[in-house]
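Section 3.1: Structural characterization of target chains.
Under the original work plan, the team committed to producing a structural model for every single-chain target entering the pipeline before any wet-lab resources were allocated. The record below documents one such target. The sequence was received from the expression subgroup and is listed exactly as submitted; it comprises 320 residues.
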Amino acid sequence: MRGLFADLQGQPLAQQLLEAALDQQRLAPAYLFSGPDGVGRRLAAQRFLEGLLSGGGSDARERRRLEERNHPDLLWVEPTYSHQGRLIPRSEAEAAGVSRRTPPQVRLEQIRGLSQFLARQPLESPRGLVILEQPEAMAEGAANALLKTLEEPGHGLLILLSAAPERLLTTIRSRCQQIRFTRLTEACMASVLDSLPNNEGDQALTLASSQPELIALAAGSPGALLEHVRIWRSIPDDLKQRLQTLPLTPVEAMALARDLSDQLEGEQQLWLIGWWQQHLWRSHGREELLVRLDRLRQHLLSFVQPRLAWEVALLNLSQA
């Protein structure tokens, strides 16, 4: 059993609970793996299912099939974008050229497909296996449909991976066995990053050492740090430079709002707000600036026209 979870670092309690479930073969129909993004929830889910498929041990063939998501009894559901009449998973959106100006969602049709998958007879596994990422990104209809599935789970096994379990319906949480994942210590985080291939982790740490905002945003999550580094590198250098300080005049504010809304996808804009809050707090230490940027984030998430939202926010900041 130790070999099964050997690469899961810094989560002893979660590992102990999952090992006990496999060892005793006392499996809940639904689990909620809760905790920050990038601290091992997805890895733990893969290893847990591997143990289920291989009788509690480690199996290279099953591991590869689960990691490649090509096992016939596994359905992996993630938030999607609606693009040209098709649902594009979040992980495929950039390659597909999908506009990401609005956050992806877990949609009603996906939950219906999930329910149908769990209702069918599995081909190889003792039960159908479903992993649902970011269930907090469900609209009301999808959440109600998921609740009905949890009320009649059948013989399937469903794992929800959530970084914001408080946003789920209480009735959904109550029907899942919750496994909590915590932020990693600095030493454990460095160990995880050091183990990555192609020096990816070392390169991320090197960049983050000169950008303390990235370390602050990661908050003990190696996966989050890698994602923050990825987005930081995607921001044009000119915009990074202009955001080092607040705009000084209305003309400067309007020009910056135009360029931010024109050059950045919605995902990048939302991420940049968090980075700028960290930067402004370090350089100014004024809470009202952070509150103004929180309001901008709410406007962008509420589908206010991005350029208008940035113009209003930056004009206010230029006068702060």
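The mean pLDDT is 92.
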